[in-house]
Amino acid sequence: MIPEVVAAGPVRLRPFRPADADDLAAGCGDPENLRFNPGMPRPYTVADARWWIAEGAPAARAAGGVAYAVVDAGTDRLVGGAGLSQVVPGRDQAEVGYWVAPWARRRGIATAVTRALAATAFHAGLVRLELLTHAENPASQRVALAAGFRPEGVRRAAGRARDGGRHDLLAWVRLTDDPDGPTPRVLPDLPGGRLTDGVVTLRRLAPDDVDPLYRLHTLPEVVASRVRQTPPTRAAIERRCAVAESEWLVGDSADFALCDASTGEVAGGCALVHDEPATGQGMVGYSLLPEARGRGLATRAVRLMAGWAFGIGFARLWAGTAPENVASQRVLERAGFRPEGLMRGRLPGRGESRTDTLLFALLATDHR
After folding, report:
1. Residue 368: pLDDT above 80?
2. What is the pTM of this model?
3. 157's torsion region: left (phi>0), alpha (psi -120 to 50) or beta?
């Protein structure tokens, strides 16, 4: 039996009350909450809030789940909502959901609520909890990790957009016998948010980096080094920048903006792809805008990236270049990588052709 009131550190989970209507309308009407909760009415009015309090939330409990008001433990003011839905009794499974009002964010409320809600659900007999997030909602993904949920994969077209379209959702799962505490991350945040040697700065790729990244990846010489030798669309670059933090959080890749340390301007990009987790191996890639070339910036960036990778537990890094790309080979050699051989016909070329790749690698022991 799921209790009516749950303590969660700085907040408390309790049933909604008529006095919550104004704060409920203001919190659910926030643009960020509406963006990632397309099932909410838009605009969200006080009338909608009153309906939810009187009918929606009680119906959730009647269906086997629960919808809580999240309130400040000291003042009892509404600061969010949370609940369990999509209950599957045959699997002892439910889905966790939450939202936080704009006036209560950055206080750890969502994490405290999710932890308390998970403990309550497991005590009531559930054994598996799912938490589904939009790929462009890294804040919610950070809550999932902090509450002990693990990334499990992508639910293709599981989300319904407000315009009727569909989009993917990331699935995060916690089991009743999973250890307490945050889920360890393969790719932790950068110390202080960046890596720098005073000349080059690496930081996580961000949505504001679309313009320089699109210019970079549509250069003919950069297109020629892509796995498929066709230029990306601007929409594809926008998507890459929008989900870069998500890819980092789930441990798939660390996508960096390569910046001039003196100006902060984007000079190129580089990435560490966690391509073989079982062996501790990662793949390195990099490219520079024309005005940034010939200054050793790529070599500095690869050194910074390699030092960070080995510091967080990678054992081996590798990179591939076209046999004729002597400039890229020099970057790798200056960064300590050693040539290991030729991979014949590794990549698709133009038409039905295949292209060779020269393989370079750097071990953690080499780096030391």
Report:
1. no
2. 0.91
3. left
